[in-house]
Amino acid sequence: xxxxxxxxxxxxxxxxxxxxxxxxxxxxxxxxxxxxxxxxxxxxxxxxxxxxxxxxxxxxxxxxxxxxxxxxxxxxxxxxxxxxxxxxxxxxxxxxxxxxxxxxxxxxxxxxxxxxxxxxxxxxxxxxxxxxxxxxxxxxxxxxxxxxxxxxxxxxxxxxxxxxxxxxxxxxxxxxxxxxxxxxxxxxxxxxxxxxxxxxxxxxxxxxxxxxxxxxxxxxxxxxxxxxxxxxxxxxxxxxxxxxxxxxxxxxxxxxxxxxxxxxxxxxxxxxxxxxxxxxxxxxxxxxxxxxxxxxxxxxxxxxxxxxxxxxxxxxxxxxxxxxxxxxxxxxxxxxxxxxxxxxxxxxxxxxxxxxxxxxxxxxxxxxxxxxxxxxxxxxxxxxxxxxxxxxxxxxxxxxxxxxxxxxxxxxxxxxxxxxxxxxxxxxxxxxxxxxxxxxxxxxxxxxxxxxxxxxxxxxxxxxxxxxxxxxxxxxxxxxxxxxxxxxxxxxxxxxxxxxxxxxxxxxxxxxxxxxxxxxxxxxxxxxxxxxxxxxxxxxxxxxxxxxxxxxxx
Length: 554
Fold this sequence. Notes:
Blueprint: H1 7-12, H2 45-57, H3 61-77, H4 81-105, H5 116-133, H6 138-148, H7 155-168, H8 173-185, H9 190-200, H10 206-218, H11 222-235, H12 240-252, H13 256-269, H14 273-285, H15 289-302, H16 307-320, H17 324-337, H18 342-354, H19 358-371, H20 376-388, H21 392-405, H22 410-423, H23 426-439, H24 444-456, H25 465-478, H26 484-496, H27 500-516, H28 522-540
Helix pairs in contact: 2-3, 2-4, 3-4, 4-5, 5-6, 6-7, 7-8, 8-9, 9-10, 10-11, 10-12, 12-13, 13-14, 14-15, 15-16, 16-17, 17-18, 18-19, 19-20, 20-21, 21-22, 22-23, 23-24, 24-25, 24-26, 25-26, 26-27, 26-28, 27-28
C-alpha cells in the first residue's frame, strides 16, 4: 500500500489552470475594483488603476511582477478604505499566481540548478504573503509544503501548511485525502498518524477510510481495522478499484485469508485474468497450491491465446511449492520447442536462483550470452548472480564492455558503484556515484552511498566530512528521515565532521526507526541493529566509524 506522497508529487499538483515552462501566468479574475474617486486620502489611485490594467494584460511571471510593483507603489503613495482593501487583494492574487509559476518551474526534473534555492525562496515569499490576505487556498498550502520538503526546507512549516490544507478542504474529500496523506508521511509517530486519519475519515471518503484501516493494522488494532474495512466494502460493494486496493493492502499486511475473501468477491464484480492472478498469489502464500493449479487450468481454458504466459505462472507455482524438479522440467519442455527463447532462458535461471544454485545459474547464462546476438539483458542478470556469489571482480569485468558501449548509462553506473564498494575500490565508487547523483539528484540510495564512503572510507584522501553531512542530510530529506540506513549514514557523517554529540543523537534515532521499519525479516532487523550498535560504540568514544572490506570476496 503506497501511502507516501513525495515532495515531487506535492509540487506537481495543478493550481489555477495549467502553467507552462515558459512561465505563462494562470488565469485569475481581477478583484472587482471600487469606483475610482481621486481625493486627498487616496493619492495612490492612479498607480492602482495602472496595476489593474497590467493585471488584465498579465500572461507571464514578469507581467505579474509589474502588477506587484505597481500595487506596492500605490500603497506607499496612499490608499484608504475599500481602495486599500482592493489593492491588497490585487497584490495577493498576483503574488499567488507568481508564486505558483515559480513553484512549477521547480517541478521539472532538472530544475535543481545553481539558483534553484533563490527561486524557491521567492516562490515562498509570494505564497506566504498571499495566503495571509486570501484565506483558505488549499493548493497554495500544498505548494508551500512541497517547497519546504525540497532539500534545505523547513519541515515544521511544511506540516503547518498541510494542516491548513486539511482544514480548508473539509468539503473536498479528495483534496483532503491528498493533504492528509502528505501530512501523515511527515509524522513519525504511528499513534498520531492514526489520529489524523481517524479525524479525516469522518467524511466517509473511501480512500481515507482505507488508509485509516492500514494505520490501524500497523498499530495491531486488527479488530478495529477489520471493522473499518468491512463497513467500507459494504458501502462500496460495487467499487472494483477499491476492492483491488484492499487486496493490495491485505497482502502487504500478510492477512492472506482476508485477502482471499476479497479477491473472490472481486471476481464476481469483474472476472479477469488479473484477478485470477491475484487469487493465485494469495493461494500460494496460504500454501493452497492445488487450488492454484486449478486456476491455472481455468486460465488456459478461458484464455488459450496466452498459453505461454500461463505455463510461466505454473512454473512460478512449482517454485513457490519448492517443487524445483517440476519447474525445471516445465522449462526444459519449452526450451525444446524454442531453444533461443529469451523468456525461457531467463526462466531456467530463475529456477537455479530459487535453489541458490549460483554456479549453475552462472554457467547457464554464460553459455547463452556467447550465443546471443543481444546479450545485454542476460549479462546484467549474470552480474547479479556473480554479485550473490561475492565474485565482485568477475562481475566488474563483465560490466566493463557494457559501460564502454553505453557510456553514462545511469543504471550501469549504479551497478559499477556497488561492485566498487564491495571490492573496496572507493575512489572508483565515488567517481561513479558522483555521476549518478548529478544525473539523478532524487536517487536517495546513491546520494546516501556517496555520503557513506565520504564518511567512513579507510582511504584518508577520500573522506570529506562537510560534504558527507550535506549529502546525508539531503538523503534524509528525500526519505523524510524515516529510513534507518540513511540515518546511520548521517550519524557517521557527523562523526567524520567531528560533531559527535550530533552523531550520537542521530544514531539513537536510527535505532528507533530500525525497530519500527516494516517489510524487514527478524534476521534482517537484527543484523541492522547489530551494525548500528557498532557505530554507536565508536561515537560513544568520540571516534568516527570506518568501513571494512567484506570477508570472502574475490
